[in-house]
Specification:
There is one protein chain. By secondary structure, the protein is of the alpha/beta class. Helix content is about 20%, strand content about 25%. The protein contains six helices and 14 strands. The protein has helices spanning about 55, 60-65, 75-85, 150-155, 170-180, 200-210, and strands at about 5, 15, 20-25, 45-50, 70-75, 90, 95-100, 105-110, 125-130, 135-140, 160-165, 185-190, 215, 225. The strands form two sheets. It has a seven-stranded mixed beta sheet, covered by helices on one side. It has a seven-stranded mixed beta sheet with strand order 7-8-9-10-11-12-13. The protein is globular. The structure holds nickel (II) ion and manganese (II) ion (MN). Manganese (II) ion binds near residues 53, 55 and 142.
Amino acid sequence: MTVQICWHGHATLSLEVDGVKVVVDPFFAPRNPVAKTTVDEVAADFVLITHGHGDHVADAVTLLKQTGATAIVKPEIGNWLEAQGVEKTHGMNAGGSFDFPFGRLTMTTAFHSSGLPDGSYGGEPGGFVIDGGGRRIYIAGDTDVFSDMALIARGGLDLAVLPIGDNFTMGPDSSLLALEFLKPKAVIPYHYNTWPRIAVDVDDWVAKVRETTDVRPIVAGVDEPVEL
Ligand code: NI
Ligand code: MN
C-alpha cells in the first residue's frame, strides 16, 4: 500500500493510491504560471474539484474528456461539467463519504466562495479527506481556518494540504492555527507564490511550523512526487 502525492503548482495535485490516479483541481500550464506540466500529459482515473473558481476548474473539462475519468464534485459543478459534455460525474456534498477504488472519500466544508467562470452557481466550496492506501489525507481547498477542523482531525491525519497564500484563503499565520486543530503528522503548503498577491516567504513559514508545532512541513517542488 502506497500513496504518492505530487504538487503541480498552485492548488493542483495528483495522487496515486494503490495504482489509481486521482487529480485534484486541474489547472496546468500554460494558464497556471508556475506549472510545468500541460493537461495533455496528465493521466487520471478520478478528478476531484474543491470549488468552481477558474484556478481550480481551468483544465477540468479537457482532462475529463481526454481521460474518461470520473469527476467527484458538488452536484452543481457536476451539472456544469455535464453541460459541457463530460459524461461521468459523481456528486457529493459536505459530510458525505463514499468508497472509491482509491479509498474512502469524504467531502468537507470550506469557508470561501464557489462561482464558476461563466457565472454559474457552483454550490458551496469544499475540501476532501482521502482515506486510502493506509493513509488519511486532508486536502483543504481554498478556505479560511475554522475550528471544526478539529472534527476532521478525529481519526488522525497523516497529511494536511493547506493553502497558505493569504488574500484569498488562510495565510501563513492562520495556517499555524489550522495545524493546532488538525494535528496532522505532516503538512504540504499550496495556493501560494502563483501570483504576487499570494506571495509568501515559504522558508519563514517552515521555520514557524517547526517552532510552534510538532507537524513536519514538506515543501513540495513542482512535479516532484512525495511518497507517504
Ligand atoms: Ni477559490
Ligand atoms: Mn483558488
